[in-house]
Each structure stands twice: as C-alpha cells, then as structure tokens.
Specification:
The chain has 10 helices and 12 strands. The chain is α/β, with parallel strands linked by helices. It has one domain (about 10-265): P-loop containing nucleotide triphosphate hydrolases (Rossmann fold). Strands 5-6-2-7-1-8-9-12 form an 8-stranded mixed sheet, sandwiched between helices. It is globular and about 60 Å long.
Length: about 270
C-alpha cells in the first residue's frame, strides 16, 4: 500500500522522517520485539536519529526491554513528547499511558486503529533518520493499521525461528506484505543455535536454516541468523539491549551484520 498518508497531520509528521521500517512476524514468541529494540539501538549507536514505536497494544514490551518501565511522558494539548533514551533514540508505547503495568487493554479494532493513528499524528517525533515500528504478531488490526497509516514505509523486517511450526505462520506474514505492496527488506532467523558455555558444543535446538530456506523459496533477502544466547535473556530482563551491553558476544556481532542493510537505506539519500 504505497503512497503518502491520507491524514494531513500524519503526512506532516512523517515527512520529517527519512525511513520507516516495520518489524513483523506471523508467529508470537520468536523474539520480534527484541529484534526491533536492538535494531533501533544499533542504528542510534551508529549516530542516526531514531524513533521506536511500539504498536503492540495488548502486550507492549519495548519499555521493559529498554529499562524504562513506568516512565512519564511530557506534552501539551497539541502533541505528546516521546521518551528520550540516550542521545539519538525516541520511544513511544501504550505502556507509558497505563496506570499500572498489569492493566489489560481490552479494545476492539476501531479503538486500536485510533490509538495507532494518534501515535503517528500527535507524537512529536521531529526529524528522524529512521522510525522503527514494533508490531504484534499476526496479520490483524495493528499490522494492517500501521501499514495503511504510514502509506510509504520502506519495508518490513520479518522475524522467525527455524522450525516448521513458526515458518508456516511467518510465510503468511510475507504474503500479507505482498498483498499490501509493502516491500520485504529481509528475514531474520532467531534462536538458530545454542553454544554450550562449558563445553563449546553447538546445538541446533529448533533446527536451523528454516528462515534462510523460506527466504530463498519466497525470493526475499535473508538478513542473517541469531543464536540462543544467555546474555540476551539477561539483557532483556535487565532492560539493557544486548547489542550495547554485551557487544562482544556472538549474538551482538551477528546483529551487526543484520543491521548493515538497514543502514544502507540512509546511504542512498
């Protein structure tokens, strides 16, 4: 669904953002939010001005992964200021608007659409090199809304795990992108292998190569594989993105390769 946003306020706000990338998956539990957060942090660490928008209305996890749970937003009647994390990263999530972290958002589609629209039209994003959007799994209300409202996104990064159970659902997500004319920038295969810290033996817990094979079969780029790494678990629980907190790990180094094609979008300017 190419073109420019229909809403004048969204059009104005989005015109100041060079590139919009949506992180998607047809399957839950594949580490999509972890990929979105670390992608945003990697781009910010490279000196780019980055916005990170969490449109997972029912299960927002971006604030937890960044260690900013319970943060208070500032703004006026006209606009909302996103939360600043470091020098180059601005973050927005419905989690910042809940009274308690345990509050459940029990909304039907129209309310979710309205909220996502406000995230784009009323949040003061300013001039950005990238807006990274973390979308919930599946092909329902939130992914459809963000694709339609952005109108001219550069494309989607698709996250999967290697096993067939995940691949079946993720293929539907790629079909979703094609039906909406949203380019697929590439596939990330998460949890591809595990290296025992004691003996060094490599184990493919969920098999490996399923994401790469799917990318080849569906004729889309394969961005790379990420291992199961205990440092990712620790970093996520502590709210410290692993690409910066555990930069010397195999997982962080693998993520650098995944980020490279996204950085090239800005080099084309």
């Amino acid at each position: 669904m190419s073109g420019v946003p229909d809403d004048p306020k969204i059009k104005e706000k989005m015109s100041a953002i060079k590139h919009k990338v949506i992180v998607l998956s047809g399957k839950g539990g594949v580490g999509k939010s972890t990929v979105a957060v670390n992608l945003a942090v990697s781009l910010a660490s490279a000196g780019k001005k980055v916005g990170l928008l969490d449109v997972d209305i029912h299960g927002p996890s971006v604030p937890k992964l960044l260690g900013v749970e319970g943060a208070q937003l500032e703004g006026s009647k006209e606009s909302i200021e996103p939360l600043k994390v470091g020098n180059n990263l601005s973050v927005m999530s419905i989690a910042f608007l809940l009274r308690q972290s345990d509050d459940a958002v029990i909304w039907r589609g129209p309310l979710k659409y309205k909220m996502i629209k406000q995230f784009l039209s009323d949040v003061h994003w300013g001039e950005l090199d990238y807006l990274i959007v973390d979308s919930p799994p599946g092909t329902g209300d939130e992914p459809l809304a963000i694709v339609q409202l952005l109108g001219n996104a550069d494309g989607a990064v698709i996250v999967t795990t290697p096993q067939s159970m995940a691949i079946v659902d993720v293929r539907k997500c790629i079909t979703f992108c094609r039906q909406l004319n949203l380019p697929v920038l590439g596939v990330v295969e998460n949890m591809s292998w595990f290296v025992c810290p004691k003996c060094g033996e490599r184990t493919e817990i969920f098999k490996t190569g399923g994401g790469e094979a799917m990318a080849k079969d569906m004729d889309i780029p394969f961005l790379g594989s990420l291992p199961i790494d205990h440092s990712i678990v620790i970093a996520s629980d502590e709210g410290k993105p692993f690409v910066s907190s555990y930069a010397e790990t195999e997982a962080a180094k693998a993520f650098t390769a995944i980020t490279a094609p996204i950085l090239k979008l800005n080099e084309k300017e």
